[in-house]
Amino acid sequence: MKIHYPLALVALLAGGADSLAAEAGQDLVPGLFPRTPFQFTAHGEFVAGSMSNEVTLEVPSGKRLVIETVTTKVEVPADHQVTSVTVRTDVGGVTAWHEIPVSKGATFTSAFKNKLNLYGGAEQVRLYADPGSTVSIMAHRDVDVCPPLCGSSMVYISGYLISEYSPSLAP
Question: pTM higher than 0.85 for the full model?
Answer without folding.
Answer: no
